[in-house]
Automatic annotation (TrEMBL):
<feature type="region of interest" description="Disordered">
    <location>
        <begin position="1"/>
        <end position="47"/>
    </location>
</feature>
<dbReference type="GO" id="GO:0005789">
    <property type="term" value="C:endoplasmic reticulum membrane"/>
</dbReference>
<dbReference type="InterPro" id="IPR039731">
    <property type="entry name" value="Rce1"/>
</dbReference>
<dbReference type="GO" id="GO:0004222">
    <property type="term" value="F:metalloendopeptidase activity"/>
</dbReference>
<feature type="transmembrane region" description="Helical">
    <location>
        <begin position="206"/>
        <end position="230"/>
    </location>
</feature>
<dbReference type="GO" id="GO:0071586">
    <property type="term" value="P:CAAX-box protein processing"/>
</dbReference>
<keyword id="KW-0645">Protease</keyword>
<comment type="similarity">
    <text>Belongs to the peptidase U48 family.</text>
</comment>
<keyword id="KW-1133">Transmembrane helix</keyword>
<dbReference type="InterPro" id="IPR003675">
    <property type="entry name" value="Rce1/LyrA-like_dom"/>
</dbReference>
<feature type="transmembrane region" description="Helical">
    <location>
        <begin position="174"/>
        <end position="194"/>
    </location>
</feature>
<feature type="domain" description="CAAX prenyl protease 2/Lysostaphin resistance protein A-like">
    <location>
        <begin position="145"/>
        <end position="248"/>
    </location>
</feature>
<dbReference type="Pfam" id="PF02517">
    <property type="entry name" value="Rce1-like"/>
</dbReference>
<keyword id="KW-0378">Hydrolase</keyword>
<protein>
    <recommendedName>
        <fullName>CAAX prenyl protease 2</fullName>
        <ecNumber>3.4.26.1</ecNumber>
    </recommendedName>
</protein>
<feature type="transmembrane region" description="Helical">
    <location>
        <begin position="236"/>
        <end position="257"/>
    </location>
</feature>
<keyword id="KW-0256">Endoplasmic reticulum</keyword>
Length: 310
C-alpha cells in the first residue's frame, strides 16, 4: 500500500505542470456537418471517435454515419422495407416493367429494322417461332442463353443498382450516384481482358482497345439503368432492359452504312434516337410508378430538392 501511494504521488502533476498541460492545444474532433446555403438548420452529427474517423473521407466528403442513421430510420418506418428500397415492390409494377422496355426498344428502332431486313423469314413466321413453346424450351436448356438473358441481367442489376444506389445516394446525392455506379459496372467487365489474353484471341493493343470501348458503352448503359431505377423505383425495368440489350448487342452501325437499304435504315436509327430523347422524361415520370423509395430516403436525410425525383 505504501509503495502504491509512493508510485501515485511520484506520477502526479504539480499545479504548474497541470496548468501547462491544460493550456496545450488539442486536435478538434471530426464532425459531420451538412448545411444548406442560407438556412440555419443543417444536419450535424456527434464528434467522431477513432472508428468513425475511419469512415471520414478526405476533402470534406460526408461520413457514412448519416447513412446508417437514415437507414435505421427507414427500417423503423412501418411503410418502407429493405426490399422496397431495393426495388422489390408491387406498386406500379406493370408500368415499371413495360414502359422502360418500350423506351429501350424505341432507342433500338434502327437495329430492330436492320434485324427484320436481314431475317430470311417474314414477320408472321418470326412471331410463330418466338411464341412457340418448343423455342422457349430450347432456350431454357441453353446455359449461354440463361447466362446472357436471365442470370447476368438479374445479378448485375441487383448488385450495381438495387444494392449500390441506396448506399451511395444519401452520401453523394442522386446525380453523382447515377454516374458513380456505372464505373464499378464497367470495371466488372474487365475480366474479358484476361480471357482474351489467356487464349491469345487477338493482339494486346486490340484487346485493350476493345476493353476500353466496352467499358465506355457499359458505363453509359449503367447510367441509363440507374436512371431508370431511380425514376421508377423498381428493379424489374432495368433487368428487362438489360436482358433486351444483351440480346441485341451493340448496334452494327458500320453494317448499316454498307447495307443495300442504307437510307431507310439510317433514317430508322435517327428516328429511334430522336424519339428516345423526346420520350425519356414522360415515360419515366415518377407519377406513373407511385412513391419512389430512394426519394423518400433522401427526404428523410434532408435533401428534398433532388431533380430526378420529380
Amino acid at each position: 500500500m505504501e509503495e502504491t501511494r509512493a508510485f501515485r504521488s511520484a506520477g502526479a502533476l504539480n499545479p504548474s505542470e497541470a496548468a501547462s498541460r491544460r493550456a496545450e492545444p488539442t486536435a478538434a474532433p471530426l464532425t459531420f456537418s451538412r448545411s444548406r446555403t442560407g438556412s440555419g438548420n443543417g444536419l450535424e452529427g456527434p464528434s467522431c471517435s477513432h472508428k468513425a474517423a475511419l469512415h471520414q473521407c478526405p476533402g470534406g466528403v460526408k461520413s457514412l454515419a448519416p447513412l446508417r442513421a437514415t437507414l435505421e430510420g427507414t427500417y423503423r418506418h412501418p411503410g418502407t422495407s429493405l426490399l422496397t428500397l431495393m426495388g422489390f415492390r408491387l406498386e406500379g409494377i406493370f408500368p415499371a416493367a413495360l414502359l422502360p422496355l418500350l423506351l429501350t426498344m424505341i432507342l433500338f428502332l434502327g437495329p430492330l429494322m436492320q434485324l427484320s431486313m436481314d431475317c430470311p423469314c417474314d414477320l408472321a413466321d418470326g412471331l410463330k417461332v418466338v411464341l412457340a413453346p418448343r423455342s422457349w424450351a430450347r432456350c431454357l436448356t441453353d446455359m449461354r442463353w440463361l447466362r446472357n438473358q436471365v442470370i447476368a441481367p438479374l445479378t448485375e442489376e441487383l448488385v450495381f443498382r438495387a444494392c449500390m444506389l441506396p448506399m451511395l445516394a444519401p452520401c453523394t446525392g442522386l446525380g453523382p450516384a447515377v454516374f458513380t455506379c456505372p464505373l464499378f459496372f464497367g470495371v466488372a467487365h474487365f475480366h474479358h481482358i484476361f480471357e482474351q489474353l489467356r487464349f491469345r484471341q487477338s493482339s494486346v493493343g486490340s484487346i485493350f482497345l476493345s476493353a476500353a470501348f466496352q467499358f465506355s458503352y457499359t458505363a453509359v448503359f449503367g447510367a441509363y439503368t440507374a436512371f431508370l431505377f431511380i425514376r421508377t423505383g423498381h428493379l424489374i425495368g432495368p433487368v428487362l432492359c438489360h436482358s433486351f440489350c444483351n440480346y441485341m448487342g451493340f448496334p452494327a452501325v458500320c453494317a448499316a452504312l454498307e447495307h443495300p437499304q442504307r437510307r431507310p435504315l439510317l433514317a430508322g436509327y435517327a428516328l429511334g434516337v430522336g424519339l428516345f430523347l423526346l420520350l425519356l422524361q414522360p415515360l419515366t415520370d415518377p407519377k406513373l410508378y407511385g412513391s419512389l423509395p430512394l426519394c423518400v430516403l433522401l427526404e428523410r436525410a434532408g435533401d428534398s430538392e433532388a431533380p430526378l425525383c420529380s
